[in-house]
Design brief:
By secondary structure, this protein is an alpha+beta fold. The protein has a 4-stranded antiparallel β-sheet with strand order 1-4-2-3. The longest helix has 22 residues. The chain starts with 8 loop residues before the first helix and ends with a helix.
């Protein structure tokens, strides 16, 4: 039998996932100002039809995120800032709140979040481990939630899938329509969550 190595990458990743799951969820609309960078998980518990299965899973306890992300210190690439000397995580969650509030078919009251402040060296590992574990629909199936408005002079692509399914962000509405309709994407989400819920039942 292979000896247990607590410092093996997979065990470090599992430690991060476990610790994030232990954090108390907070309504996204009520996230306070705080210092830090790290990883976070958004949870949905509303009535949008395509997410019915996800809402059912999260009815008693928030266990399956709809989106997982990270916020690194702005000077991370140059080693300028420590994870506790930045407001990167607060800013990222504030941006997500604005995106959801702009959507015409979502309610900010239907979202909660868990987060974990971490040193920068572990942030990417934590995000990838969480995504690998949960395969959230806004990471794995519907892209574009974390996008920002394209800068002036940059080429404009098609409208992101997320904005096609949840219209309302002004900058995205100005982009050319995506090749697939909201109805097509909603059906994809239903099928994906049906399959994901079966996997979740087997994992539980």
């Amino acid at each position: 039998m292979k000896p247990f190595n607590p410092l093996a990458m997979e065990n470090l990743a599992e430690s991060i996932v476990h610790t994030l799951h232990l954090q108390d969820p907070v309504p996204l609309a009520l996230v306070p100002e705080f210092d830090g960078a790290g990883v976070y998980a958004l949870y949905y518990h509303g009535s949008f039809p395509a997410y019915k299965k996800l809402t059912a899973i999260n009815a008693e306890k928030l266990v399956e995120p709809i989106y997982i992300g990270k916020a690194s210190p702005s000077g991370a690439r140059k080693g300028i800032e420590l994870a506790t000397q930045t407001s990167a995580l607060t800013k990222r969650l504030r941006d997500h709140r604005k995106s959801i509030e702009a959507a015409t078919n979502l309610n900010i009251e239907d979202f909660s979040v868990r987060w974990l402040v971490m040193e920068d060296v572990w942030i990417a590992l934590g995000e990838s481990a969480m995504i690998r574990r949960h395969q959230p629909v806004w990471n794995a199936r519907i892209d574009g939630f974390g996008n920002h408005a394209p800068g002036r002079g940059r080429a404009k692509g098609a409208r992101p899938q997320w904005d096609t399914l949840h219209p309302g962000r002004v900058w995205a509405d100005a982009l050319p329509p995506a090749s697939r309709s909201a109805q097509d994407l909603e059906q994809d989400v239903r099928v994906y969550l049906d399959e994901r819920c079966v996997n979740y039942a087997n994992e539980s």
